[in-house]
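Lecture 7, part B: from sequences to assemblies.

Below are the input chains for today's worked example.
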Amino acid sequence: MHYPNGKRNNGINQLYAGNYPKKFSNRGMTLEKDINTTNKFYKDTNKAVIHKKPTPVQIVNVHYPKRSAAVITEGYFKQPSTTDYNGIYRGRHIDFEAKETRNKTRFPLSNIHHHQISHMKSIEAHGGIVFLIIRFSTYDETYYLPAASFFPYWDEQFNDGKKSIPYGAIKEKGYLIPFHFQARVDYLSIIDQLYF
Amino acid sequence: MHYPNGKRNNGINQLYAGNYPKKFSNRGMTLEKDINTTNKFYKDTNKAVIHKKPTPVQIVNVHYPKRSAAVITEGYFKQPSTTDYNGIYRGRHIDFEAKETRNKTRFPLSNIHHHQISHMKSIEAHGGIVFLIIRFSTYDETYYLPAASFFPYWDEQFNDGKKSIPYGAIKEKGYLIPFHFQARVDYLSIIDQLYF
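Predicted structure of the full complex, as structure tokens:
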């Protein structure tokens, strides 16, 4: 953990950026940006090929001006039917979803859609490596939670009505993902431990 | 090949739809629709999980009307940096690009982008199954061309200036993909032959 005080401070930077020295300000990145940086590093070093899927958009109207690029003038966001990230690592298919929360005690399930879960279950059944990356931004802790540990919470919510996973359970069943300067969310190090 | 005369007639239907009986008209589908139907069938029968990636869009302006969905009012098409399709089959990572041409003698390389080729080469190096699906719509023939057979043509164009692959070469190095009513482009049958 390359921090002077041994602590990361993304969330705090975002809230109180003015109180921190300028040189820390680029650490106030979102989880998505951190993962994109990590994936680029994995690709550049030929470690893995993992991409974020584009945001699905329903395109309704496109304008074609002369001599310049087509402009989408009416479009709508569609609900994704798969996870956001997939690719290949050491010959294995990788598939995951990433979410961050400012909640200090639980991870709300409301950010995940039913068909994303179906997708994750199918990929796992077909032999893929499937997981969630969950960041508690106030603690600046990012966890790797195997899909198999996540599914029971998802399925139970329809019985017990609990629409979230306690922070403690994620701490217990998940793996804290180490931070490195270039691999900011170094989730492949966890996959190495678990699968290879 | 479930056709009265043993031939598919997609391309012909599209050109001369009025001359053909109504009941054939739904065969005038594009390659993309045929592949989507096939992937849905693979998924529904739990054979494989393969999806088309959403079209990448650069979103510039979004309008948030009260009480209704957000509207993208300005967006632009971005060049894709990966192939259009990927997923998992029998534990293996699958990655492919699909293109159709009305050209009768050659497949023009201009439809494929340089970074898509880099992507395919990386995926192959990491152990994925990578290929192109190429349809000659006037013959209504759809070929599976292994990426390894495609790369030399791509690389050679910068030496010999030939910006296309002859139809005969694709016929020779590719595999004619069978048509089935539900798996309209049954490319997994070719993968079964080649890999399992």
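Note for the exam: Residues 10-54+81-195 of chain A form a domain with the Trna Endonuclease; Chain: A, domain 1 fold (CATH 3.40.1350.10). Keep this in mind when comparing with the next example.
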